[in-house]
């Protein structure tokens, strides 16, 4: 259990890189997946989930403040579920995607929450009763805790549930999920090609 | 005034920390320029207050390229600090125009260059490196630890492919736009951004095509003609065709994947 | 011919250049902004940020009709700074059918309708008025975003 908490804490920190802290792309699925894989004892599983996630998410570009589903959450939770709860990779990838979609609403709520705080915070900053630095530290803490709790809650809820129902999952379901997992890199590679399109005009 | 650009550079990594829908990166921008403001107006608390509320205006740019806006704003801020009372409003208006126009230009170029081109390009680079290590060096990488080390190397390299240009732009952008003028587009003219995007995209397209063909070869070549192979090929082709259509409808690929999973579930239950 | 009309206070910006322009057949981008039309720096920076393959013109709303007539043969992407200027376009007799709203500037007292889209009473009056002239509105940040209808 302690290991899972540590893994969730690391993943939440990696997710911070997406928007709030640095944008070094440590949060990109290939990197986050690999790091999480290393932590969870199966590096190549993490790397594979990372590459698959990043390929499938290539058409999401975070422009002008839209909130796309987080690739780090998808790959990271997938690795935790596979690594600690022995969920098959084609199931954990699917669950990861659903969690990344669910996570967008957490992210949007955080952004709305800050929007609503804005008027009073601006007033305090101008008056000098709060320094931008302490505000940023507080804000970071709130964001980090929200992301951490989301990840911890979801993985510790879904992981044991999976262990419980694992043996009742019919073989046909395994085949179906394997098939769609097999499609992912191909859809991704064709999208990668399209993302480099120079039409209509880029120059 | 001597400006510690390195300090500002470090602060730009926190530009998006208080991202909000109303004024986007406004708090982050204020945090980035705060040391400058404190220094410029250390003897004038009223002007400091005024500068702070001005810097709390909406700000929305690409986090990497925003440096090209921040440097230009700092330069104008110095002008405001020196100006006489009668010209204050005019200089402040000028500051707003510079802030908005450089931020928008940097957003348009930066989103395209860093998010939409260099990020996928470094992913492509990673996949090619992973393929290459498998083919050429796997024989020498017998132990799992060696293989992990090689793959970690590939991941780190792909991060560098993105981060070296990104860090350079982040740092150089501050200086170039600080030294820049309207005629040099606040330093943006030094590079032909549209040309760089075009070259990267064209290279990326050729490499991806090669990668796709090679992936088909290693996954399908040498397999005996069987019902399983035919099913897989048929599924692959039909979903690639389907993905052309979903793309036209602006449906993101993850929904295509989710739909595929449901279709396969239903199909496997029926059969 | 107008192929697309978008209200976006940021004008030429990541969302427009990266997400919308590749999806819509465009030869020319027509920016309607009284502020940018008077300011050479704003217009210059827009030109620099837009791929060279697109023609660009930055004008005020009252100059739009002659410009559109002159370029009748081209596919024109119209980018309007705010709703007041959109109303001015309609008054000038520019044929608007569908208007996409991407982003409006937040000011105190404005109500949020969608992420990044804020209207005050005046804006809503304009929308209502234009709706009566059979102009359809939708809020959509990116082509892949879900469309938000404006019911007032």
Q: Could you please describe the fold and organization of this structure?
A:
Chain A has 203 residues and is mainly α. Chain A has one domain. Helix content of chain A is 77%, strand content 0%. In chain A, helix 5 packs antiparallel against helix 6. With 271 residues, chain B is mainly α. Chain B has nine helices and no strands. Chain B starts with a helix and ends with a helix. The relative contact order of chain B is 0.09. Chain C has 152 residues and is an alpha/beta fold. Chain C has one domain (2-139): 3-Layer(aba) Sandwich (Fructose Permease), CATH 3.40.35.10. Chain C has six helices and eight strands; from the N terminus they run βαβααβαβαβββαβ. In chain C, helix 5 (83-92) runs parallel beside helix 6 (121-132). The longest helix of chain C has 12 residues, at 121-132. Chains in contact: A-B, A-C, B-C.
Provide key terms for this protein:
heterotrimer, B: 271 residues, 0% strand, C: 152 residues, alpha/beta, Fructose Permease, six-stranded parallel β-sheet, two-stranded antiparallel ribbon, 6 helices, globular
Short structural description:
With 203 residues, chain A is mainly α. Chain A is 77% helix and 0% strand.
* Class inferred from helices and paired strands of chain C: alpha/beta
Structural class call of chain A reads mainly alpha
Mean residue pLDDT of chain C: 93
Order of helices and strands of chain A: HHHHHHH
CATH superfamily of chain C: Phosphotransferase system, sorbose subfamily IIB component
Cα separation of the termini of chain A:
53 Å
Strand order of the largest sheet of chain C: 3-2-4-1-5-8
Question: Strand share of the residues of chain A?
Answer: under 5%
Radius of gyration of chain C: 15 Å
Strand count, sense and barrel status of the largest sheet of chain A are:
none
User: In terms of quaternary structure, what is this?
Assistant: heterotrimer
Report the portion of residues of chain C in β strands: 25-35%
Give the helix/strand layout:
The complex is a heterotrimer of chains A (203), B (271) and C (152).
Chain A: H1 2-19, H2 29-39, H3 43-56, H4 71-85, H5 89-127, H6 132-165, H7 171-195
Chain B: H1 5-12, H2 26-40, H3 45-55, H4 67-82, H5 88-137, H6 144-179, H7 193-220, H8 227-248, H9 253-270
Helix pairs in contact in B: 1-2, 1-6, 2-3, 2-4, 4-5, 4-6, 5-6, 5-7
Chain C: E1 2-8, H1 14-20, E2 28-32, H2 34-38, H3 40-49, E3 55-59, H4 64-70, E4 76-80, H5 83-92, E5 98-103, E6 111-114, E7 117-119, H6 121-132, E8 136-139
Parallel strand pairs in C: 1-4, 1-5, 2-3, 2-4, 5-8
Antiparallel strand pairs in C: 6-7
